[in-house]
Amino acid sequence: MGIGIVGLGGMGQLHARNVLEHGGRINAGADIIEQKRTRFGKEFGARTYESHEGLIDDDAVDAVVVTTPNRFHEPIAVAALEAGLDVLVEKPLAHTLESARRIAAAEAESDGICMVGFHNRHAASTAMFDEYDNRGRFGELTHVEANYVRRRGVPGPGSWFTDPGLAGGGALLDIGVHAIDLALYTLGFPEVTEVSGVTRTTFGTREEYADPDGFGDNWETSSEPYEVDDSVSAFIRCADGSTISLEAAWATNRESSTDFVVRGTEAGASFDIGDNDLTILETGTGGCDHYADLDLSGDPSITGHLEQDKRFLEAVATGIEPQTNTIDEALTVQQVIDAIYRSSESGRAQQLADPSDQEIRTQLE
Questions:
Q1: Would 170 be classed as within a structural domain?
Q2: Is residue 162 domain-shared with residue 283, that is, in the same domain?
Q3: Are 339 and 350 in contact (CB under 8 A)?
Q4: Within the chain, which residues score under 70 in pLDDT?
Q5: SS3 for 14?
Q6: Is the domain of 77 the same as that of 204?
Q7: Same domain, yes or no, for 88 and 171?
Q8: Does residue 194 share a domain with residue 158?
């Protein structure tokens, strides 16, 4: 399998190394920045291109991994799918719901498949949770507390992360998207009936922004406006009665947390996003009424990114539609994000926008 990477920064290099570890070949890379092309070509022995068009036309490329800023997911993914290539596009699916729908429409008409990079569902902690859930250990799942909170972790102004035209949003689209996907995945992607949320832009607009961990850069030199959200609180209701509470932030005055708590009728579970450990929370009456917590430690060599890329390469090799990280799931996540933004703007709960094929066709026309 010959893989091409579009976007040769840190994420592109990570995917490239994963492909090699799983026995694939990195035959091409594309990036508008010459230095990145030169470095990538030397490290992976790949041909490099300034634009994705050249990479897609390369006969040695069987599948494409897209790791560019969000706005460029659509033109690259659509071009690759129209060429019949398989695609793995990093999260979120796109910078807007409309753009995500157009990718979904292209995938429906293509001989290629499209997976979306929600790697946390493949971490060891989630794999162990899935196994015990399949055994019925938790009973009926009722609620997920989903946290992806940085105390201070705003990407510096002037980066594409804080440019609404390139990113489409701020903390919600960058890290909140991971928490939403993992929560819905944990619950089995039930039908979402109502979304209520509030996004805030509080810290990134301050001239004196404390960044103790040096997470961002360009704070002192950038004159770029900061127009994206840096925190979000949301509540999601599903048709089966299950619910999700979401806290996501680049910056907020509370301790950092990537804690997930899943409640079930028979037991609960807690774990950190992307971690290797899982705690099962139960009670008992043997001897006396008591709490019974079981701590599980998974294989640290299992990482979400590595397992996700393995699933993608398997789909490319076999031609079998993937059963995970599907474009339908990613489109649902994008709909939830869109509903949160609409709820914040209107001050009222919102339903998901209609994702029907007819609506997609109308937009394409």
A1: yes
A2: yes
A3: yes
A4: 218-223, 355-365
A5: helix
A6: no
A7: no
A8: yes
Helix axes 327-346, 177-186, angle to 10 degrees: 120
Closest residue by Cα to residue 66 from 108, 2, 34, 114: 114
349: three-class secondary structure by DSSP? coil
pLDDT of residue 157: 74
Q: Between the CA of residue 88 and those of 31, 70, 79, 189, 252, what are the distances in Å?
A: 17, 13, 13, 20, 32
Euclidean distance between CA atoms 22 and 209, whole angstroms:
43
CA 177, 180, 182, 184 torsion-angle sign: negative
State how far Cα 54 lies from the chain centre.
27
Report the C-alpha gap between 359 and 38 in whole angstroms: 43
Q: Specify the pLDDT at position 13.
A: 98
What share of residues in the chain are helix, strand, coil (percent, to 5)?
A: 35, 25, 40
Q: Please, where are the H alpha helices in the chain?
A: 10-21, 34-44, 52-57, 73-82, 97-109, 124-134, 164-167, 171, 177-186, 304-318, 327-346, 357-364
Question: Which of 240, 236, 300, 294 is CA-nearest to residue 269?
Answer: 294
Closest CA to 129 of 150, 144, 147: 144
Nearest to 140 by CA among 267, 281, 282, 291: 267
- 260 and 272 fall within a common domain: yes
